[in-house]
Amino acid sequence: QVQLVESGGGLVQAGGSLRLSCAASGRTFSSHGMGWFRQAPGKEREFVAAMRWSGGSTYYGDSVKGRFTISRDNAKNTVYLQMNSLKPEDTAVYLCAADTSPGSTWQTWNYWGQGTQVTVSS
Which residue in 91, 70, 90 sits closest to 80, CA to CA? Predict the structure, then answer.
C-alpha cells in the first residue's frame, strides 16, 4: 500500500522560505514520477513541480519557476520541495503525488498524500 506523508508546512512572511517533505513508503518508487501540487480554497488543483524518482529532468509550474526546487533523497525515500521568495498567492494546501506514468494534469496521478498547509502573510 502506497503511503505519502507530507510535512513542513506552516505560516511564513512574504519573501521567506519553507521546505516541504514527502515521505514515501509501501513500494519501490524507482520507476515513479513524484510531484507536488497545491490547492487554494475555491481553486482548481494546480501543478507545482515534478521529477522522476530515478533522476533526470525536473518540471515546474510557471508561477513557481525560479523560486521552488524539487529534489529527493533516495536513502530516506523522501521528496522535498524547497520554496523560496514566497508570496501570499502561494498560500494553499500542498499535496505530494506519485504515479508510474503521470500526465500533465492532476487527474492522471494515482497516489496522494493528505496535504500540508502553507500560509504566506503579506
Answer: 70
Alpha carbon distance 52, 6 (integer Å): 18
Dihedral class, residue 72 (left if φ above 0, else alpha if ψ from -120 to 50, else beta): beta
Nearest to 33 by CA among 60, 58, 51: 51
DSSP 33-69: EEEEEEE-TTS--EEEEEEETT---EEE-TTTTTTEE
Q: What is the mean pLDDT of the chain?
A: 94
C-alpha span between 103 and 109 (Å, rounded): 7
What is the per-residue pLDDT across 57-75, written as a single tens digit (0 to 9) for each? Answer: 899 999 999 999 999 998 8
